[in-house]
Amino acid sequence: MTITKTRKQELIGQFRRNDNDTGSAEVQIAILTSRINSLTEHLQSHRKDFAGRRGLLMLVSRRRRLLDYLKGVDPKRYLDVIGRLDIRK
Question: Rounded to two decimals, what is the model's pTM?
Answer without folding.
Answer: 0.92
